Every structure is written in C-alpha cells, then in structure tokens.
Amino acid sequence: MNRKTAVPIVLIVLLLSSLTALAQAPAAKALPNVVILATGGTIAGAQPKEGDPGYKSGALSIESLVAAAPGLDKLANVTGEQIASIGSQDMNDEVWFKLARRANELLAKPEIAGIVVTHGTDTLEETAYFLDLVIKSDKPVVLVGSMRPATSTSPDGPLNLYNGVALAADPASKGRGVLVSANDDIHSGRDITKTNTTDVQTFVSPERGILGEIYYGKATFFNMPTTRNTAKSEFSLDGLDSLPRVDIIPSYENADGALVKASVAAGAKGIVLAGVGDGNGTKPLIDALAEAAKQGVVVVRSSRVGSGIIRRNIELNDDVMGFVAAMEMNPWKARVLLRLGLTKTKDVKDIQRMFVEY
User: What homologous superfamily is domain 33-232 in, according to CATH?
Assistant: First the structure.
C-alpha cells in the first residue's frame, strides 16, 4: 500500500463505520394517537362580554380548545371530534349512547392509544361513571372540564386538557378505569364528585381519595381502582336503544310519599332515595318506598350527605323492606348503576351484588 491509496481507504472505513452506527441507532419514537371527543361545557364556554361572569357553555369548537393548549403536539398525535355542544346540565341518554359507542369504536383500533372527553362539570361525575361501566377497553379514557370559561381572565381548561391528553397517552394510565384530570389531580370516574359551585378545586373523591397527581403532563399514580370497571364490566350497550327510567327522590323534613307515587305512576323501574343521614327518611316516605318495592320497583337507599357508606340493614331493615343499600354511591351515581343494572335483572339480591362489586 502506498501513501496515495492509504488516505482514501481510511475515509472509506470511517464512512462505513458512520453508516453502520446510523443504521443501528434507535429510530425516533412515534407519538401515540389520542382522540378528543368534545361534548361542550364550560371548558368550551365563551363570555358575551370580557369580564362578564356569565357565559354560554359549549360555544367554542374543539379546534379552539386544542389551539388554546399549546404543546399538545409534543404529547401525542391529537385529532378531535365534536360529539355534542351542550352545557352538561343538558346531558342526556342520546349523547351518552353516542359518546360511549364512538369511544368503544375508536378504542378497538390498535393505533389509538387513548381518548380524552371534554365535558361540563355539572354532570361530569355521572358521565364518567357511566363510561366506567360501559367502555370495553382497558386503554385510557380521560374526562376533563373546567370551572372557568375559555374566555375568562384565568381559564383552567387549557391545562386540564393538556394533562388529560398526557394521561391518555401515558401507558401507566392503562387498566385504571375511566379517569378524570382536574386541577392537577387524577380521580377515578367512579369516585369523583363535585363539591363547590364555582371553586376551581371543586372535585374530590371522598371515600377512596385521588388516584394520583399530574404536574404539567407528568403523572404520579398512588392508587389502583379495586372495583370492576371498563373491560371487566358486565354491562354493555349492545342491543340497547334506551335505559330504564330511574328517579331520585329526596328526603327532607315532613316529606310524604307523593313524589314516590308520582314516580311510580310515571313509569319508573327504579327509585334512588337521597336520604338523610345513613339513607333514611320520614315514615310516610319510607312506607311509600316499601310499597313501591312490593310493586316491583327497585329501591336503592343512598344519602344526601355527600360521603360515607350506606350499609345493609343498619338504618333500616333492607331485607324486610326489599331495598338495596347504595354502599359508596351518592344518589346520582347510584342512579347510573341502577339504570344499567336494570338492563340485566330486577332481582334485588343481584342488584345489591352490583353495588358491592362496582
């Protein structure tokens, strides 16, 4: 080998080494695919006048919500669909069915990592629990909302949405049931409830506590749900086009049985008592509920208190009266579970099993 050929050979060797190193280098990790299903709510609310406390829920499009949360493109490949544009006080079965069925369609696709649902806070806890019972996948489904409209001075929606997308894209969220991301906290859709009319820190999970915390997209989980949900749930919307009527009857001073009788006359298949204390009520109210139970209406005892467990045969003799004890479920969530339970059975013992397992 002479000097004239030595340099080119060295260059060739270096070039081949570089090409080998490039070939062996790990490819850039593809971002997960997350779909946002929008239903309206305060998170999409707009004030008619800047600084005005009033606003119209669901006024903004999903594109506007995404644009207001910079950095989503670094978390996931985000696409969106508008399921509804309503304030969640107007949430209804039609939207529930549409939302749940579309979510299940998307989650069945291998390329979809998770789903985010934007929702008003008024009935968010009911929708979250409904989805927790009818979603047929262990992939993340995360609900987000806000207490301040998008056009307010300091909206909380954009960060809630950012954190929601981060959770939906995070493999650690898998298998935890439906989640809610609110004000840096991670709640189970089963446990969460709204506790304040306007406070940003309105959501709590009174019995079991939060599942974790999320700080600018970085999640730390503390707990795993222990009740049946999503992929392990026995409930399904297959073959259904409606849910049975279930009414909530409150207890209060001097309450009689008129509302119970009206509910039965209106065709209710179930009644949830929002009782005082440990799920009790006045004698006339309880007598009317016992009579409804004899007529085949499934009666569930819950409480208006806001926390605590309604156990069987403690405040009232459920065995004798034919009632179901709501366990941890507040009246609104007890209604969700009872409606789905009634699509499977009217047997009081089996309904009670559901309130223990779910």
Answer: L-asparaginase, N-terminal domain (3.40.50.1170)
